[in-house]
């Protein structure tokens, strides 16, 4: 709980700090994010009575959403835009079990979705050219919850370990028309979301570093 409070206070201070700058405002925003992994990643989990097991993070895109508050300030053609958002993302996974069959077919296969809820604090700064804005900046995210569609009928002893904090960056192109904001962002990660997978007390490194495209609209109301 203390981590949530500190993160909330940090986001609030950043948003309030822009209110004293010329051409500034505070508002609300929301939109969709389309996340995926740069490539498929596999971890061989070894063999048991059912045969060799493989866990794979698929590169398929996952559609999530975000909403929260946004601050905006500009001066002499330069802008800064901090945001404090609730962000929901996810990734598609596959667990496969392969027996020693002549044709090498999988005896069992299960697809499931991992979903993650974050508090995100992006801060983008850049240049304004009329209504057009282009910028780049860091983003910090804290995982507050995750859910899994994994059904443990294939293996009762698999644990997915994820990092609570992730650090990344956002590159943005957007429009500001009056108090209306329209932004298109690309977000990459500098730290891993996936940490490890544990199977029967054995740990396997599992590097999942997702990226996402973000479409967001906002309205400055203060």
Structure overview:
By secondary structure, the protein is mainly beta. It has a single domain (2-37, 61-91, 113-150, 158-220), classed as Porin (Beta Barrel), CATH 2.40.160.20. It is built from one helix and 13 strands. The protein has an eight-stranded antiparallel barrel. The relative contact order is 0.21.
Write the layout of secondary structure elements.
Blueprint: H1 2-17, E1 24-36, E2 41-48, E3 51-57, E4 62-75, E5 78-98, E6 106-129, E7 132-148, E8 158-162, E9 165-177, E10 180-189, E11 194-199, E12 202-205, E13 211-220
Antiparallel strand pairs: 1-4, 1-13, 2-3, 3-5, 4-5, 5-6, 6-7, 7-9, 8-11, 9-10, 10-13, 11-12
Number of strands: 13
Number of domains: 1
Q: What is the overall pLDDT average?
A: 77
Our Rg estimate from Cα atoms comes to 21 Å
CATH class: Mainly Beta
Alpha carbon gap, first and last residue: 29 Å
Estimate the strand proportion.
over 45%
Task: Give the ordered list of helices and strands.
Answer: HEEEEEEEEEEEEE
Overall 3D shape: elongated
Assigned CATH architecture = Beta Barrel
Q: What fraction, in percent, of the residue positions are helical? A: under 10%
Write out the strand line-up for the largest beta sheet, numbering strands in chain order: 1-4-5-6-7-9-10-13
Determine the CATH topology. Porin
Q: By helix and strand content, what is the structural category?
A: mainly beta
What is the helix tally?
Answer: 1
**Uncertain segments of ≥5 residues (pLDDT<50)?**
none
